[in-house]
Design a protein that fits this description.
The chain has helices at residues 58-66, 111-121, 126-139, 155-167, 185-202, 213-219, 247-250, 253-270, and strands at residues 17-27, 33-43, 47-51, 73-78, 89-91, 96-99, 173-177, 205-210, 222-226, 233-238. It is of the alpha/beta class. Strand 7 (173-177), helix 5 and strand 8 form a beta-alpha-beta unit. The chain is globular.
Length: 276
């Protein structure tokens, strides 16, 4: 069992690796090389963002970490699992939660039943599954909406439900694929703050995909900047600031400096691309 890190020791606990990608590439059946080779190490309890233009392989890397696909070459290691070293090998970790860009909720059932779906699939007893679903909804501020249906929720609330569903299994690693991209700016800022609060309190490892420089700086301890396809790592920048972060950081000179630095690192990815 992976040891949990309390919020007061998040930084102190960043010693062991949660995810390791070594020489990883991905080429699709149509011949398109989407990714790599890349080498990336993510420590337990760390919050990192993968930043890059559309089509650079950010989501592909996330899906490889989740085990939703196999690399064409290289090794993906997750959590403490040990294993072989053959090309294309994926070592399955345990306890991965995935939040997709779209909430993908079942419209015909309640918020509570949407959240407990992973537990039903895992044959967790109903009483325990309901209790865990309610606890997860409480963490994301939706305890009063357990009996609501997705059609009754705003976009931000639907994304909270999706996050609760990812958390209900108590994963060690939380993978998030541009979850707030379609939301208005005010809702996005609020959910950024709530996500940071959850990360501090639960001590999860978070890998967050975004194409927003501003979001990546605000959320992350590290930002990994990826090149245009095939995606490679062209910068790995640590965001050093006082914790916990809040609106003071978002309006600070340090925040602006990091945004400029990341924008400069990202600029080569857009060189030669059409602006249409």
């Amino acid at each position: 069992m992976v040891e949990r890190k309390p919020s007061s020791t998040v930084e102190a606990g960043l010693t062991a690796l949660a995810v390791s990608l070594r020489g990883v590439t991905k080429t699709y059946d149509n011949g398109v090389m989407a990714l790599g080779p890349i080498n990336l190490a993510i420590r337990k309890g760390e919050f990192i963002s993968l930043l890059g233009p559309s089509g650079c392989g950010k989501s592909t890397a996330l899906r490889l970490i989740a085990g939703l696909g196999a690399p064409s070459s290289g090794i993906v290691r997750v959590s403490r699992h040990e294993g072989g070293s053959q090309a294309g090998h994926v070592e399955q970790g345990h306890g991965i939660g995935f939040v997709f860009q779209e909430p993908t909720l079942m419209p015909w059932t309640s918020v509570r039943d949407n959240v407990r779906l992973p537990l039903r699939l895992a044959h967790v007893p109903k009483a325990e599954a309901l209790a865990r679903a309610d606890a997860a909804l409480g963490r994301v501020g939706l305890a009063d909406f357990a009996e609501a249906f997705p059609r009754e929720l705003s976009g931000g609330m639907k994304m909270r439900v999706s996050l609760a569903r990812a958390l209900v299994t108590d994963p060690d690693i939380l993978l998030m694929d541009e979850p707030f991209a379609a939301l208005d700016e005010i809702t996005r800022f609020r959910l950024n703050n709530d996500l940071l609060a959850l990360w501090r309190s639960l001590g999860k490892t978070v890998v967050f995909v975004t194409h927003s420089v501003f979001e990546s700086v605000y959320l992350s301890q590290r930002v990994v900047v990826m090149s245009a396809r095939p995606g490679r790592i062209q910068a790995d920048i640590r965001i050093e600031t006082v914790e916990p972060r809040g609106e003071e950081f978002r309006t600070s000179a340090a925040y602006s400096d990091y945004c400029r630095r990341l924008s400069a690192a990202l600029a080569p990815s857009y060189a030669g691309q059409s602006t249409l």
